Amino acid sequence: MFSYVFMVANLVQLCLVPLGGLLLDKGGLRVAKLVSICLMFAGTMMFGFTSGSTSNMLFAAMVLVAVSSNIGLVCNQQASSLFPKYRGLIVALISGSYDSCTVVTFIASRTFPRISFKVTFVVLACCAIVCGLFEALFLLTQYSSGMAKLAADQDVLEGDGLEEDVTEKTSVEKVEKEVMDEDRSGMGGESVDQKVQEVIVSRYPTLKSCFRSYPFLLGTLWFTFGQVRFSYFLAQISGLLEDSFPGDSSLVDKLLEDLTIFTICGIAMGVIVGAILDACRNAERRRLASLINNPGKQTSDDQIYSIYLRALAPPVTLMACCSLILSCILFVRGKQAVFYVAFFFFLVFRSLLFSTTATLVISSFPIQSFGLVYGVINLIGGAISTVQYGLLELNITTSHIICVVVSALTFIPPIILFVKAGQRKKKCYSQGEF
Q1: Are 313 and 284 within 8 A, CB to CB?
Q2: Which end of the chain is more exposed for a tag (fewer CB within 10 A), N or C?
Q3: Mind telling me which residue stretches traverse the membrane in this protein (predicted)?
Q4: Is the pLDDT of residue 189 over 90?
Q5: Which helix (H) or strand (E) holds 134?
Q6: What are the residues whose beta carbons fall under 8 Å from the beta carbon of 238, sequence distance 6 or more?
């Protein structure tokens, strides 16, 4: 039953993300966060008071918690705007922490076995209210654009606080010199980011222009393919283990518990994935710095944007590789070690899937459109991922073959990113801009 509860909740929360995104863009971060914690409180309390006779309440509880978690995740991801140079790391850490939160119930069940689930969920509900209120009132700004402005103001304050005895003019000159030195070193820092933001604003003056862009299409494609693979793996894992080890329920339970332990490592994997995202992004920023700062050469906005987007191509390619390996390795049955390898690649795949999608929307579209653009991508992915209902009715071998095909299709978006950036780079070479 829980497999269907998970599938329904996952589908509903994906379909409702656009409403959460609209709430975020129009109502603001604080309003969205307050709505999120109210839904979380209600859902968690329903979990705590569900019994055998009221098991259907699990559907409502799971939906409320799932929707609130997604709205909360979108709000928390705005924290990456405070650290633009480490945006990939922040997004991946926040995404990974949602996996690692399973450590709470895991430790509680092992350390305090006599405490009932009802008490555990009541405590979690109260903690959600307290932490959510603190974040909404003291950490988040009213709107998403305010987070970026806060980061800029903080940079100015840090620059002014370098030396107390220097004049304001000297402080400003020192900050400007540091930026120029960073540009010369190849990172391109502030000047590159400002130029890219100018390009983004000019390319997407309206919300409609965001939805009609090729980055939106590519992001939707890889998220949809990845969501099908992600959801189906979690929905089928119990049945797959029972099919691989018939009659050995103790081993099945042990492997399911080990999967929980693997997901606890999500925040650690987030550090690695975030480092990969930032490394790729910084590499492209260095290339853009040499391109933008080349005197006497005109560079089109299209060239800058295509090269900037290429930073996401290597992580998405790695995600597709993990998905393909995961799909292929599950053809092997009856081998316990195979499932540990599958758990590892699933962990990497999951972290890359959500981190790359969020990073694409945050960094490639206007910040004021983040909520709705991200929500529509989730809506499309959630709607198409309903094919997993049909996959559950097929035999395991056939469903695995379909998953291999889906994983192979995930390579299409990064290939397009590489090709488009390569075309722009070749054009730059022909113009002598590199």
Answers
A1: no
A2: N
A3: 6-24, 31-51, 57-76, 88-109, 115-140, 216-239, 259-277, 307-332, 338-360, 372-392, 398-419
A4: no
A5: helix 117-134
A6: 3, 252, 256
